[in-house]
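Anyone able to model this chain together with pyridoxal-5'-phosphate?
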Amino acid sequence: MVKINQNFARLPQSYLFSDIAHRVDAYAAAHPHQKVIRMGIGDVTLPLPCAVVDALKSASSEMGSKETFHGYGPEQGYPFLREAIVEYYRREMGVVLKPEEILVSDGSKSDVGNIVDLFSPDNTVLIPDPVYPVYRDTNIMSGRKIVYISADSHNAFLPLPDPSVKVDLIYLCSPNNPTGAVYTKDQLAQWVAYAHEQEAILLFDAAYERFISDPALPRSIFQIPGARECAIEFCSLSKTAGFTGMRCGYTVIPMELSFPGPLGEPISLNKMWVRRQTTKFNGVSYVTQRAAQSVFTPEGLEACDKNIHYYRENSQMICSLLAKKKIEFYGGAHSPYIWLRCPGEMSSWDFFDFLLENAAVVGTPGSGFGKNGEGFFRLTAFGSRENTAEAMERLSPLL
Ligand code: PLP
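re: yes, here you go
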């Protein structure tokens, strides 16, 4: 008889977004004339920049002509996109990469989830709590031991390494989902030093790097000396360029990363990833990759920044109300997420119900992201200006 992967039974039941939908539907049915403002889901709302739409149109035309049609492309991404990304890192962050180190995919959720294929199930994994649930769930599915490190108000949701804790894989996300907290260079340097001491790999999720507006804050782990010898970086065009519905991201695996194989011979993680992708993935569509290439042109980046600025102004509106009401909060400055302590010691779900019932505003209960999220709440800045302003007007008398 077939034996199923028993690790799936160890996954925590994920009712977060279905519970939210259920409660919102019940509210909407009972209050059919009340407009519900959704500030819970981390999806963008502004349309794609014109430069991207132009690139999509012209690549689509190429696909319709015998001379310029493209079939299967290279699984790791077309050279034109990999080179554009190398140039982006060089120009924007002073980071020198090789095109072979950039591995293009259909988004960073897939890569963050699939990277575990490269590592033995008997590695121990360090994951901050609260966290983007993909890190936790993919490691539970593959049966790895997880050690959690507490992110909480004592460390401003930016935990630092504890040298007495022995681990092999370390997940970090900065700017963070859900807390919006951002590590400084000095703090990331401590994580890089820890990864070296432990001979561990640091898996760095930079999906929100473009929301960082302070040039002193690191946008890539490779801005930290020594990171090329211990880190892999995941990046996404979803929030940078509004690609949530387009699907494109990339992972950077430096050539320096190699570890002993079965006979003690060095095996490159980059080569292992290429082997994995060529076996299980057939690449991102030509049209999408041309659109992604256009993101990295001066016009593309300018248009993306304009959209990010729009979301940033929404964040400022939310943060200024919270500051005025003296509510403890994190994030918002370099992130589309604002993470606040529920007033009056309410639990995350009590505050969710309170906002829904009294303001028809929907957010995400922090407890859905881990045990340290209890008593906290996530609002996102991805809504329209009008809705964000209206939500703040409704919240103001309640807080
Ligand atoms: N990493 C983090 C921290 C995220 O919040 C998200 C999406 O919300 C992703 C990765 C996934 O991004 P993508 O749309 O590229 O799969």
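The mean pLDDT is 97.
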